[in-house]
Amino acid sequence: MKELWIRATIKGNTGTFETFFHQYQRIRSSVRKSHVQIYGDFSVGSGAMAPKYEAAQRSIKMLDEGLYVDNKIMPVYALKLKVAKSNETAIRTKAQRDLQVLLEGRGIVDRLMEKLVREATADQPHLRSTVSGTRLGLSEDIFPCYMELLNEFHTHCFGLEHEYLIHQYYKLANICVLRLDTSQLLLQLRSLCLPYKSAVFSRVL
Question: Looking at residue 65, which CATH number applies to its domain?
């Protein structure tokens, strides 16, 4: 992603006015390996590319440990660090409880995504491993399908407050890249998500 952006900047038309959005529009479908926040979401606006995550969820450099912690595991790492380093029993106990709730919640949404993939590949089960385990190349024509799936997922399942789920949105994009029939998945999304959503007690995953 970074290399594509640098090339786009260098090759920009001299003397013309090009905004960040123009660059984004030009390189968006060329991204194959990196994960631009919401995988494949072309929109630039409130909540689309920059959800309001709490500072504790961001990737940070732990200066005292000399470690760089990826934002996907940051909440888990922060709680484990609190458990290990806290001298107060009450704080340590709460951190242990919060960690257990967080890990249970992540396990629940992992199972939900597996369920959605199984539903989407009901007629073509041989594609399940591809949908779940591969970030397929994008093309612009898949985005109406992808945005419909993503919007319904946000409405009936989980919203943008859960950064952990953003790392799994590529599975929804893959469903559209492979031209799988999404009609049944869209119809059943509310009922499929309800038991999983009600079982998650962590405020942020």
Answer: 1.10.132.130
Split into its structural domains, the chain has a count of: 2
Full domain range(s) for residue 24: 1-34
- φ, ψ of residue 67 in degrees (nearest 5): -120, 150
Burial of 102 (0-12, 13-18, 19+ CB in 10 A): buried
| Judgement on whether residues 84 and 177 belong to the same structural domain of the protein | yes
pLDDT tens, the chain, 205 aa long: 445 445 655 555 544 445 555 566 555 556 555 554 444 444 444 334 333 334 434 444 444 455 555 667 778 888 888 888 888 889 899 999 999 998 999 999 999 999 999 999 999 999 999 999 999 998 889 989 999 999 999 999 988 778 888 889 999 999 999 999 999 999 999 999 999 988 887 777 7
The first and second tokens of residue 119, run together, are 């539903």
What is the pTM for the complete model shown?
A: 0.65
